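Tokens for chain A. Residues wanted.
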């Protein structure tokens, strides 16, 4: 894709995220997005059907960026869990405004739901490749870890990241190792 097109799409998405942060999704208009992105309304419509399409594409784009930055080879089972978690927390810290807006009540539930689905798949793959004790149910473990990690990430972001990514990962790994006897 042409760099000018990418730059315009990025400006529109960033304007959109900023407006969600300020006003909430329902109060945003295409006109406001265009003004904030410094483009005309027609340009917004060249890239996106409406604000719902823009939201959908933002969700896809930002989830893909999160996934690619945390699992660069696209195979979560090959990355040790501690390294994977650290990459995730560091990426979220660098892009705090975008992800806090999308994950919290200022965004829309669709982002959090899709992020959790993506996390669940990665966690399931990680569990398969690293193994667990025979008495532990993989499905229940994957659900527990997905909800726990997503909740912890959300808490961390909502509370203005009171701990460094490294501290968060160290604490999370201690909790997991102590309570689940997982290796990572």
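Reply:
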């Amino acid at each position: 894709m042409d760099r000018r097109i990418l730059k315009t799409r990025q400006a529109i998405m960033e304007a959109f995220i900023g407006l969600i942060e300020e006003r909430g999704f329902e109060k945003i208009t295409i006109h406001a997005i265009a003004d904030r992105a410094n483009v005309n309304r027609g340009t917004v419509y060249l890239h996106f059907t409406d604000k719902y399409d823009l939201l959908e594409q933002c969700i896809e784009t930002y989830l893909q960026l999160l996934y690619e930055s945390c699992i660069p080879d696209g195979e979560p089972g090959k990355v040790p869990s501690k390294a994977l978690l650290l990459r995730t927390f560091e990426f979220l810290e660098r892009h705090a405004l975008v992800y806090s807006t999308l994950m919290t009540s200022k965004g829309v539930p669709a982002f959090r739901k899709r992020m959790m689905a993506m996390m669940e798949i990665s966690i399931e793959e990680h569990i398969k490749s690293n193994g667990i004790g025979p008495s532990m149910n993989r499905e229940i473990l994957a659900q527990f870890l997905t909800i726990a990690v997503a909740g912890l990430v959300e808490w961390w972001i909502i509370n203005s990241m009171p701990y460094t990514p490294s501290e968060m990962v160290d604490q999370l790994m201690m909790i997991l190792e102590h309570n689940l006897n997982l290796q990572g």
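The radius of gyration is 18 Å. The chain has nine helices and no strands.
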